[in-house]
Structures are given as C-alpha cells and as structure tokens.
Amino acid sequence: DLSMFYHEKTEREILSLKNYLYERKESIEEDDIDRWIRMVATNRLTGHSIGFFSVYTLPPNQAVSPKRQIKINRKRRQKPEYRGVKERIIKKSISLLRKLTMQQKNYLKEISKSAIFLTKDARNTPEINENLVQLTVTSPPFFKSSSI
User: What is the C-alpha to C-alpha distance for residues 84 and 133, in angstroms, rounded to an integer?
Assistant: First the structure.
C-alpha cells in the first residue's frame, strides 16, 4: 500500500510505466529513450515539491517508511493529490537538457559507450584499469534526526 505517498491515479501511471519499461528491457527492445525515462522517473518518485510524483515528503536522498509518511501527512494536513507522471517526466527532461548544445549531446552519446558507472566499494573495482579514475562521486552520511 503506497496510498500515503501517491494518489491512486498517479500510482497506476507509475506502475504502468514500470511494466512498460520492464517489458522493453526483457524483450531487448529497450533504447536510449527508455533508459532516459527510467532515470528521470526514478528521480521523480518521492520528494518535497510539486515536481515529484509523491505528496510532500523528505528529499529523495532520505527514504521514508510508509508509517513515517502517514505522520508527515497528518502533521502537514496533506493528502496525495493526482500528479501526472508524463507531464513531470517531460518537464524535468526539458530542465535537464535545456542548456546542452547538439554538439554536447552528441559527445555525451559517444562517450557513454565506454563509460562505467558502479555502485560499490571504491576499494574493490576490478572493472577499472589501474590509474584510470578521474572522478569518484560519493554520498555523505545522512543523520536520522528530523523534526517531522
């Protein structure tokens, strides 16, 4: 039950998109557009503004349990309203792409063929040749305390 996060119609749209993307991947028909939509939709699942699919909750990097979300909803006197999935994916995509030139888009597409993205212990990455890393992105620890 995710009714504390999403309006019923919004949740149906999310599940429909999830099923579509799953079927595309399983049938080996998934393309760059599908992967882009998956990335943007994943980023829009929960958050603290109207641009997210969910009712107001904590920022995306701070997971909230259903029980905790019920408390947030009570405190804020809020109820999930319908939020169109397609519209939010389009709006966020436009925002993310608006400053890229066609040359930059083509360059990114080309280098993506050899890019490696890993989510694992950085001390053990046999997939990467030695002396090759130019950037490591980490996430800071988050504290459990909150006033909500």
Answer: 40
